[in-house]
Amino acid sequence: MSTSVALITGCAVVTYAIKGIGPLALGGRDLPLWFTSVVILLAPALFAALVVTQALADGKHIGIGADTVGVAAGGLVAWRFGSVIGCVVVAALVTAGLRAV
Question: Which residues pair with 57 in a beta bridge?
């Protein structure tokens, strides 16, 4: 078995184990309200952290370039119009345009 197959198998086993712990521990009961409200806030916070990291990361240093401006333009479109497709298209066009210049 290759290293890649072993790694993928290990990740799958750990993922299934983590997902199985919740229903096993709760036994069909509902989560407390305070816990549910915290879990709901985790996804947007994680997404924001990933976007900021990818938009500003340049190896080991903070770097602002065409991709950062593209992400900002896409974010502006998403904020004003709420269109995910428009956000992606504008971000791609602005980034490509700035890189071409």
Answer: 62
- Average model confidence (pLDDT) across the chain: 88
> How many Cβ atoms sit within 10 Å of the Cβ of residue 67?
19
Please tell me the distance from the alpha carbon of residue 67 to that of residue 54, in angstroms, as a whole number.
9
DSSP 65: S
**Coil, strand, or helix at residue 72?**
helix
Per DSSP (E only), the strands in the chain are 57-58, 61-62
Residue 42 and residue 44: Cα distance in Å, rounded?
A: 6
pTM above 0.70, yes or no: no
Q: What span, in angstroms and rounded, lies between the C-alpha atoms of 28 and 10?
A: 28
Task: Answer for the pair 80, 89: CB distance below 8 angstroms, yes or no.
Answer: no
